[in-house]
Amino acid sequence: MKIRQQIAVTGLVLLAQLALVAACGKATNDNSAPAKSTDERDTSKAIHIHAAAGTRLATTDICDLFEKKSGVEVIRNFASSGTLARQIASGAVADMFLSANRQWIDFLIDNRIIARDAVHIVAGNALVLIAPKGKSVSAVDFSPEFDIASLTSHVAVGDPAYVPVGKYTDEAFKKLGWTDRLTGRLVLARDVSSVLHYVELGECELGVVYASEALASKKVQVVATVPAHLHRPIVFYVAPLNASAANADVQELNQMFLGEGKAVFTKYGFTLLDN
User: Fold this and answer.
1) Could you tell me if 128 and 222 are in contact, meaning their C-beta atoms sit under 8 angstroms apart?
2) Could you tell me how far CA 133 lies from the centroid of its own chain?
3) Calpha distance 194→171 (Å, rounded)
4) Is 44-124+235-267 a domain of CATH 3.40.190.10?
5) Does the domain formed by 127-230 have CATH 3.40.190.10?
6) pTM for the model
7) Average model confidence (pLDDT) for the chain?
C-alpha cells in the first residue's frame, strides 16, 4: 500500500514539473511584443541639438513644435556655447549646434565639424544689468568715472573663458575700467542661466545677462541696459553638423529655426538680425 502511494505521489510531482517546463517554454518562445503607445516617438530617428543656455525657452518651443509636426524626437542639451562646442569636438552625439557667439562656431569650422556656408544667424540680443526684484539700486552710469564697486559686493557674470555672455560682459567692463575695481567681487558662472539664478536667489546683488533672460524671470529687475558700443554685437547662430547635414529631418528642423522659429525668438525678447 505504501509503495502504491509513493508511486502516485511521484507521478503527481512529475506531472507538475512537466507542466511548469511547458509553461516556461511557452513564455520563452513567445516573441510577441506589447503594443506601443501611440504617444511614443521613433527614438531611432531622434535629432540631437546642442543649444546655448540662453536660448532654452525659444529652442524648447521650436523643438516641441517640430516634434508635433514630424513625430521625430529632438533631444536637447543646454549649456554654455563653449562647453557644448568642446563636447561636440570630443565626439558627443550631436546633429545641430546653436551658439551664442561666433567664436565657438568658428572653433567647430576649424575642426571641420561644421561647414562655413551652413552657418546662419538666428537672432540678436542685448546685455543688461540686473538686480533682485524690489532691491533699491542707484542709477548706473556706464563711464570709466563711475564707482561700480560702491553698488555691490558680488556681481554674477558668465565665465569669459567659455561663456559668451561672460565674454561680452568682460569686453564692456574692460573698456570701462571696471574689471580691476571689481577684483574679488566677480562671481563666475558656468552659463547665463546660472548668472540669473545667483541674482534670483539674492546671492549676488547684481548680475549681467541677456535681455531675453531677464525678461523671462519674475524674480529680477533690469537696472540698466549695457550700451551696445561697449561690446561686440550679440549674435546667435545655428548650423547642422557636417555628418548630419544631409539628414532630411535635420534640414527641416534647421529651416524651422530660420523661418517660423524667428517669431518665437522675438516673443522671448530676442531681436531679429539679417544674415
Assistant:
1) yes
2) 25
3) 20
4) yes
5) yes
6) 0.82
7) 88
